[in-house]
Amino acid sequence: MNPAELGMILMAIAAGAMMPIQAGVNSTLALQTHSSTMAAMISFVVGSIALAGVVMAMRLPIPAMGALKVAPWWSWTGGLLGAFFVAASVILVPKLGAATMMATFLAGQLTASVILDHFGWATFPQHDLSPGRVAGVLLLFAGVYLIRRY
């Protein structure tokens, strides 16, 4: 593995580690605001402010309107998908716990990922479904069962 690949793997591990922390932080905020939806909204506002600061610091140009107009309709749904994920995590973490919630999310993520890869949807490179990939997803669901049961 070259240093660039190792850096990407470590970044992915760090991002993955942040997910249960974010769920716990947002769940705490939901307790304080008495609203899961309000906590998710505050999370997105804070994140949007942070990203606006990064964009300004990097001096990224504002995209031309023409480029935005030709983007596929579904490319605009990322924020909605993220809002659902954050809201679901705020609701689920106090009921399921971090391990069950994250294991279940991971099983869902990998199920969707092998389907996206198989068909090459949403600009992903196409990778055929294989027995190994199916077995990997099934093992993730077995992990969900074991984490939840024990």
From TrEMBL:
Keyword check for rRNA-binding: no
Transmembrane parts of this sequence: 6-25, 37-61, 73-93, 130-147
InterPro entries xref list: YdcZ (IPR006750)
Keywords: Membrane, Transmembrane, Transmembrane helix
Gene Ontology CC, one term: plasma membrane
Name by which UniProt lists this protein: DMT family transporter
Organism whose genome encodes this protein: Cobetia crustatorum
